[in-house]
């Protein structure tokens, strides 16, 4: 198809999908977003076109993608419910729509694909031998996307560490380290002391993806990139930044406590989110760092917001710095681990 700057974002109501939608809009892209909420067939809001449809409905996705040069596949089942049953059918619908429209597919990647044989320094060519159900599904997603690329399509995958940032909801920062909607008095630390962990600030991730999309025609038909993000070498960098920001804004420095993994163990049979968090515990027990040399070779540099600035913006939006600001924040799922 003729190249254009029209993009369909699946998952535009979520963290990375929403942030990328706004950034692409701001640099002149025509952004379409699909949502299940019944509304008018086409509604213009905040400079984006919102279409009513379901990522699980192949016709809805195909109709929304008609005329688009890019499809951003940033959609996931809410609250991890029925994840294993729904994720692959949703991706198949995206691939079918992209095949019809000739669109590039962008997938926000994860480190779930990798197992211990790839640690501690992961590159784009590291072996993918996952040790979890979600990791196996992620590997299968990439296999299907690679097949799409072999058949003439284009695929772009950007892998990062754990998300945090304004508008990011289902992530370790907002569901594990702090309590959204309350001024921080205690910060939970999920990792083993001395073990490194990698974080990714959502606006930096979206900015990286947007820059890569602009250059998509220069890239290989199946291109994978990794972001270095914010590397916490011993597990104290992120908790320390939260404590500094809160102390500066409120005058009270929060204490740090161990994350209550025992509680997740007890509650996992009843709470899907806790069950999935428990399965990912291995990522907090060993250092995992992502090499971004390939990304820097293409872009020249990686977008990087200073950590304290990123943490302050995140805490402010979560209602964790000012009790008066917390009234409008409503959690989207179980977040209290105390």
What is the element layout, followed by pairings?
Layout (H helix, E strand, L loop, with lengths): L5 E5 L4 H12 L3 E6 L6 E4 L2 E5 L5 H8 L4 E4 L9 H19 L2 E6 L11 E2 L10 H18 L3 E6 L2 E3 L7 H6 L8 E4 L7 E5 H13 L7 E5 L3 E3 L4 H14 L4 E4 L2 H7 L4 H8 L9 E2 L2 H7 L7 H11 L21
Parallel strand pairs: 1-2, 1-5, 2-4, 5-6, 6-8, 7-15, 8-12, 9-11, 10-14
Antiparallel strand pairs: 3-4, 11-13
What share of residues are in beta strands?
15-25%
Q: Indicate the structural class.
A: alpha/beta
How is the biggest beta sheet arranged? 8 strands, mixed
Helix content: 25-40%
Let me know the CATH homologous superfamily of the largest domain.
NAD(P)-binding Rossmann-like Domain
Model regions low in confidence, pLDDT < 50 over at least 5 residues: 325-338
- Number of H- or I-type helical stretches: 11
Q: Using the coordinates above, name the CATH class of the largest domain.
A: Alpha Beta
Commentary on this structure:
- This protein is of the alpha/beta class and 338 residues long.
- It folds into two domains: 6-163 and 200-230, 3-Layer(aba) Sandwich (Rossmann fold); 165-197 and 231-285 and 305-328.
- The protein is built from eleven helices and 15 strands.
- The strands form four sheets. The protein has an eight-stranded mixed β-sheet, with helices on both faces. A three-stranded mixed β-sheet has the order 9-11-13.
- A hairpin with a 2-residue loop joins β3 (42-45) and β4.
- α1 packs across α6, α7 (237-250) packs across α11 and α8 packs across α9 (272-279).
- Residues 325-338 have low confidence and may be disordered.
